[in-house]
UniProtKB/TrEMBL annotation:
Keywords: Cell membrane, Ion transport, Membrane, Potassium, Potassium transport, Symport, Transmembrane, Transmembrane helix, Transport. HAMAP family: Kup. Residues 502-655 form the K+ potassium transporter C-terminal domain. This is Probable potassium transport system protein Kup.
Amino acid sequence: MTAQPSVGTTEAALEPPPAGPTAPARSTTKLALLVGALGIVYGDIGTSPIYALQTIFNPADPHPVPTNIANVYGVISLIFWSLMIIVTIFYVGFAMRADNDGEGGIMALITLIRRHSKSQGRKAGLALAALGIFGAALFLGDSMITPAISVLSAVEGIKTINPDLESFIIPATVVIIVLLFAFQRKGTAVIGRWFGPIMIAWFTALAVLGLGGISRNPEILKALSPTYAVDFLFGHFDVAFFALAAVILTFTGAEALYADMGHFGRKPISRAWLFMVFPALLLNYMGQGALILEDTGNISGSFFLLAPEWARIPLLVLAATATVIASQAVISGAFSVASQASELGYLPRLRIAHTSEHHYGQIYVPWINWLLMVSVLTLVFAFRSSESLAFAYGMAVIGTIVIVTILFLYIARGRWKTPWWALIGGGGLLLAINVTFLAASSTKIIHGAWLPLLIGVTAFTVMVTWQRGREVVSAERERREGPLREFVDKMRRGEPKAAQVPGTGVFLGRGKDSAPLALRAALELNHARYAQTVVLSVQTEPVPRVPESERVEVDDLGHCQDSVIHVTVRFGYAETPDVPRALRLVRPEQSEGRKLRLDKAVYFLSTIQLRAGTEPTMATWRKHLFIATSHITSDAAEHFQLPRDRTIIVGSHIEV
């Protein structure tokens, strides 16, 4: 990657600027964003009709919902108003307005809270940031369950075509999942252009099938009235409360609306939901409800039974394709969350491959990819049906939504100064609804809901342990390195004596307050110093991208004639740290009037060998967990885009 050329007075610069985009061009761009949002954002929530209703009325459920007219009306009404309140009003109407430089999702809320807490010094903000990390950990559990339940539910449609093919469900599911994860290293750019059109066909099919079902029993339209939901919830609370745990399945993927805002923008995502996704989902759920009213035997496979017999094979193929897209979306989301957590210091530095030159969000994280694949396959073999997996699914979804709601309310008060009466009234009601869903889902803990909690607790423990261990190592490393300015003063006095060698040496360190261990080793052991010495530290800012004008900051360390400078390079958490390219932004007047000679510059890295010590910095088991986690750290030279043939690594030992 080369540096951008500087702007000069060229012939091209004297030409008039190009005209802005025409109205047709702007319309085309908006349409492309809307279609893209349909393909990437709504895959998860868009495939819920395949399994949601049959799960709610599943007779094998530990808390079954009897199939009768009142319950069908009540459930359909609950689904409609849940989608309206949680997705339309909360996520589309409010949450998507809380963005971090255009980025959304729970990690964006965490960075906003950390920034607010830093300026205000509030301990509550730090506690909420930790809660947000647990929400991100739950999302990783969601990323494991979604591909398993989505693909399984689609392949199970085989039973509606020929019950004798049931034995092929698990093998076919495994093949699809393995191919899905094997393809991740190639990136989504190749098939990304097809996601939108396929999902348009999918949502069109949902609407058409739903209208066909409604035509059989138009009375189902009465379920739009909130009175049916209220009567069901309060008139049959002993049944309705347990039904809420399955109703959660109808708004799985709601977090994707918020998390993918940085890719498509708030308006395209909102318009796609309001004008296509929401109407299609509602029509399909009502069509299935009408079908169940016609014959309760239609509960199993109610989605596929909406289609005439001749259309079920094409519908099965379309459903399988849609579930793959849904799985792709949540896998990409897991890559994004893991990458951002790494950049913010909650996970080790991971090897990340950017799979698109045009879209920064399209990344591939090998370690996370293979971990997810093994986990998803394990879930398929362990649960063997979408109905069994559904018991576990809701907990991860509603747990994340409850946490997002709490963080959003904190931001609404702290950042926007929302009046207390509005916060307590509207926010309190919303939180009460979400907590009720969470309580209902907790009744499934012994039936499988323990799984996402276990995954979440495990991921959370790893992340907070890494954060704590990183603090311990950084403190010990800073003590060993000593003050940078003091070390430069000694260099100026010739302590220790060192011969000057031509060229530029770049020493990566932790900051401008301490001398990198590699720099000390070069002078104290090799007795050599470079004609140009650059001490460089990389900072990851809590924003997606840093402008080029703010990329580098140069400090001459008080001795502008000593050929030693400190350079701070800043990257956003969504950027690939390219250190050589960033160094080219250092202007000659910032480095003693001489341009940095980077063509043959030598880069020095300090690597740490960790050992469990006796100091009470952490519990012993956490020390070993921290050391074990450190083994997945990616190669620093590759991470910072350093040239392999000009990179030297200096090692040392530190006890935690």
